[in-house]
């Protein structure tokens, strides 16, 4: 799933200090191709994050479980991700990116094996938990690695590539799984065999990535709720205010979107659900490119407006039985997440020191993914109890209110620099 990184201020931080590996000389920037390659592990792991989405209908038919159970499977991913964020950001800042990224990719490969052989709800829960842990490490260490490789003179490019790598991977996963599930035999095994190959290439990239060892001092607990340095709290709060409703909206589409499509279109085909998810995240990436030159405040306000409009479209879709409205809801939700994520990442990039960049990423994602795990689960069980239309209506109304509130928080902020271009 759906789902920032802070930029380093200087490439000299890791040079000439005890216990640190020498980084590239200050006047020798890393070739531009490595900035793009550094984003590939983020993309590869996020392909896995949503690859199961079009396959849930198959598993429901083969194993047999309710919509509520389906959202619990999704929430297990969120639980693993949040647990990972409690340690991965701090560990990455203290130990380096590779010591966190390589184990994360190993867990992702293990998740592929469990998914490919899953024959029970317990197996799906385990696979989603492993996936969540891997994703949590990648949104902390992987996105920060893009920043480290880029250097301070390519900060805007690094922020954009890191954020787009996340949403593009999240969209490619369900598209790939949806198409393969309808064109090849043994779809659940085939999908994750292909994903394992992608993850193997990501391992090769990480092993060769030109990364210096960071200079964060080993102070405080290793396992803790991630945060930001004093003075950066407002930046974090503004980012969460818009990113959280956006990623919660896309999480709902991923978890219950196939059920809505089945009700509106009378189809259980994985390709349709996969295409909708891909379009949602492609819109997220496109929105980020479209607003990349705007200041932080306009980007965040646009993100909040898109999420609110998406929830309005969702209500129209379920009450008017309108597939076009559901498509519009998904696309607007994607735009809301994309702009909220980019705005939050950019705010942190412009104010958080390099030695705390991975932990800052983790803090932003904890604030976003916590409601993204809780609210769709509540909507799933409510839908089992009172019907999908009523459950979706309650969820859409609540998230509309949260998105509007986030926009008002951004409008109310008049702090110096936090809401301006940086």
Automatic annotation (TrEMBL):
GO CC annotation terms, alphabetical: plasma membrane
Span list, region Disordered: 1-26
Record's keyword terms, sorted: Cell membrane, Membrane, Transmembrane, Transmembrane helix, Transport
Location within or outside the cell: Cell membrane
Membrane topology summary: Multi-pass membrane protein
KW Disulfide bond (keyword) present: no
Domain Major facilitator superfamily (MFS) profile: 1-415
Keyword DNA repair applies: no
Transmembrane segments: 34-59, 65-88, 100-123, 129-150, 157-180, 186-207, 236-254, 260-287, 299-320, 326-348, 360-382, 394-412
Name of the protein in its database record: MFS transporter
Principal cellular location given in the protein's record: membrane
One example GO MF annotation: transmembrane transporter activity
């Amino acid at each position: 799933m759906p789902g920032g990184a802070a930029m380093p201020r200087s490439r000299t931080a890791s040079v000439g200090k005890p216990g640190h590996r020498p980084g590239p000389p200050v006047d020798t920037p890393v070739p531009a191709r490595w900035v793009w390659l550094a984003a590939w592990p983020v993309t590869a792991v996020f392909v896995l994050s949503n690859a199961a989405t079009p396959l849930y209908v198959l598993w429901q038919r083969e194993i047999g479980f309710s919509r509520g159970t389906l959202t619990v499977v999704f929430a297990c991913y969120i639980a693993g991700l949040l647990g990972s964020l409690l340690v991965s950001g701090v560990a990455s800042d203290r130990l380096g990116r590779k010591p966190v990224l390589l184990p994360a990719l190993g867990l992702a490969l293990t998740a592929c094996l469990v998914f490919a052989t899953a024959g029970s709800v317990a197996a799906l829960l385990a696979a989603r938990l492993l996936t969540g842990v891997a994703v949590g490490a990648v949104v902390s260490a992987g996105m920060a690695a893009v920043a480290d490789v880029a250097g301070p003179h390519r900060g805007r490019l690094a922020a954009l590539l890191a954020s787009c790598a996340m949403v593009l991977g999240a969209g490619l996963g369900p598209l790939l799984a949806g198409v393969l599930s309808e064109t090849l035999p043994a779809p659940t095994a085939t999908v994750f065999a292909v994903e394992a190959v992608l993850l193997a290439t990501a391992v090769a990239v990480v092993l060769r990535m030109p990364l210096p060892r960071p200079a964060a001092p080993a102070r405080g607990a290793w396992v803790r709720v991630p945060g930001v340095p004093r003075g950066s709290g407002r930046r974090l709060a503004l980012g969460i205010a818009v990113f959280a409703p956006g990623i919660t909206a896309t999480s709902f589409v991923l978890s219950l979107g196939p059920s809505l499509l089945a009700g509106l279109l009378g189809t259980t085909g994985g390709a349709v659900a996969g295409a909708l998810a891909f379009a949602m995240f492609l819109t997220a990436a496109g929105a980020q490119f479209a607003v990349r030159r705007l200041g932080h405040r306009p980007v965040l306000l646009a993100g909040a407006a898109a999420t609110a409009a998406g929830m309005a479209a969702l209500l129209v879709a379920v009450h008017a039985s309108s597939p076009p409205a559901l498509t519009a809801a998904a696309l607007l939700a994607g735009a809301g997440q994309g702009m909220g994520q980019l705005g939050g990442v950019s705010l942190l990039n412009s104010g958080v020191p390099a030695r705390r960049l991975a932990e800052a990423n983790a803090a932003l994602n904890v604030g976003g993914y916590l409601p993204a795990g809780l609210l769709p689960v509540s909507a799933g069980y409510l839908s089992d109890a009172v019907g999908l239309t009523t459950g979706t209506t309650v969820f859409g109304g609540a998230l509309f209110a949260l998105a509007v509130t986030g926009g008002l928080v951004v409008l109310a902020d008049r702090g110096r620099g936090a809401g301006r271009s940086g």
